[in-house]
């Protein structure tokens, strides 16, 4: 059996800079590498072509301050060192877990600051639960049903913009590992939808977690 391995999605390593490198240091490193691996200096060199794609993908993310901050939130695999080619399914699963956690923490953080809102939501969930099954319990299906109803009230335009940026950077990271290619529209949109659904499930999990924290059975 071939062991599945984790990818090293480390754009800092690609550009040869430290994680605390300044924007100017990143720019200088990028320019140096582009000069070194530019196709004009390496005609018909497929390795150089692949390298320049990696360099451009890395700089597209960490060369932009906002994208860099987003990347710091969802980067993974920096401790994994292996000579084997990473399994695309492992890369996707790891990114999905990152996005799920981001969605969960986002909604949980909002609700935990508003205990009265949590109590109000628990009252609604409790009423529905008793009505449907005759007794009180923390029925996850009913909790998630309520969560789906109220997420629109909790999610601000700023949160939606942050989610969009997270998904963009996540897809760029997938493209850098050749898990998806922007030329394959069907696959690209399939993964985008998969990541979006995962993030939204994370938000619902954050709603459930906040309510469960204060739930007391009656």
Provide the descriptors you would attach to this structure in a database record:
mainly alpha; elongated; disordered N terminus
Task: Write a brief structural summary.
This protein is an all-alpha fold and 218 residues long.
What does this structure look like?
By secondary structure, the protein is an all-alpha fold. It has 9 helices and no strands. Helix 2 (23-37) runs antiparallel to helix 3 (46-62) and helix 8 (157-176) packs across helix 9 (185-214). The longest helix has 30 residues, at 185-214. The radius of gyration is 22 Å and the shape is elongated. The model is unreliable at 1-6 and 79-83 (pLDDT under 50).
* Net shape: elongated
Q: Can you give the helix content as a percent range?
A: over 70%
How many individual helices?
9
Beta-strand fraction estimate: under 5%
Give the total of beta strands.
0
The whole-number mean of residue pLDDT values reads 89
Per-chain topology:
Blueprint: H1 11-15, H2 23-37, H3 46-62, H4 65-74, H5 88-111, H6 115-133, H7 140-154, H8 157-176, H9 185-214
